[in-house]
Amino acid sequence: MPELPECEAARRRIDAGALHRTIEGFDLGEVSHVELPSEDERARFVGTQFSRTHRHGKYIFVGSKDGPWLHIHLGMAGSVRVLEEGAELPDFIRFTVKFEGGNRLHFRDPRKFGLVRLVEDVDEFIADKGLGPDALEIGDNAFSETIGKTKGAIKSALLSQKKLAGVGNLWADEALYRTGIDPEAKANKLEAGKVSELHRAVRDILRAVVDTDATYSKLPDDWLIHHREDGDACTRCDGKITKKTVGGRTSYYCPDHQSGT
DNA sequence: TTTACTGTTAGGAC
DNA sequence: TGTCCTAACAGTAA
């Protein structure tokens, strides 16, 4: 379930279990339609160790010292886990890094929208992609400049990785729910104060989810994440949660307390 | 059997 | 040129 907090949780798992171990080799699962490093690229990692990780938005990087990085993108349904050699494997493992001593770093991706690739330079990669600032790092001025001046729907602006990297469908809905903004509201029609409030909500929500290691059951009951169903009672007013499509994405919101269109 | 899906991006409209 | 929007991607699960 990968947006920024899920990716951060994945990065931390990699930090905890996949660094400073010598890479022995790789295993590939059923990988039709999955982009993975080529045999030559994989060979460059064998015998080396990962020593650092980095995350920008939803993009995860695992780096060897002075060498290339392994970039992992989780797509719509991907995840990573570190397991002992011989542990029972979940289905849909597409790619495995084998370390001396037994640990395995697995990339699982049922839906095959994710990818793993070799990246020489992280900063260059981010620049080439045109990714905006990370959603946890961006300052209030930059947020207001990029998000607040967009002509289209505020939710579409939040989802644009070129404006702001890391926010996806679920946490965009959550932030708009908390701040009482209709997902279809025109971003450039919102009051400046409202845009700042939205920035704080995005930041606070992402931080809180990161703090739970992206375990949704640990999040407060009154968050929208637990009520994403047409007709559910709103937890902030007497309204009912309603489903509509904004920018091609399914959106849940409460028409009674979310306004701005 | 049908439908929806948490991300990204090419291509088209304006 | 830029900005915005839609559809499509592949496979699973409800």
Structure commentary:
This protein has 261 residues and is α+β, with helices and mostly antiparallel strands. It has two domains: 4-129, Alpha-Beta Barrel (N-terminal domain of MutM-like DNA repair proteins); 140-253, Helicase, Ruva Protein, domain 3. 28% of the residues lie in helices and 22% in strands. Strand 6 and strand 7 (103-108) form a beta hairpin. It is elongated, with a radius of gyration of 20 Å. It starts with a helix and ends in an 8-residue tail after the last strand. The model has no long low-confidence stretch (mean pLDDT 94). The structure holds a DNA duplex (14 and 14 nucleotides).
Produce the secondary structure layout.
Layout: H1 4-17, E1 23-28, H2 39-45, E2 50-56, E3 59-64, E4 69-73, E5 79-84, E6 93-99, E7 103-108, E8 115-119, H3 122-129, H4 140-146, H5 154-159, H6 169-179, H7 192-211, E9 242-246, E10 249-253
Antiparallel strand pairs: 1-6, 2-3, 3-4, 4-8, 5-7, 6-7, 9-10
Helix pairs in contact: 1-7, 6-7
The protein binds a DNA duplex (14 and 14 nucleotides) through residues 1-3, 6, 32-33, 58, 73-78, 92, 110-114, 150-153, 156, 159-161, 168-171, 247-250.
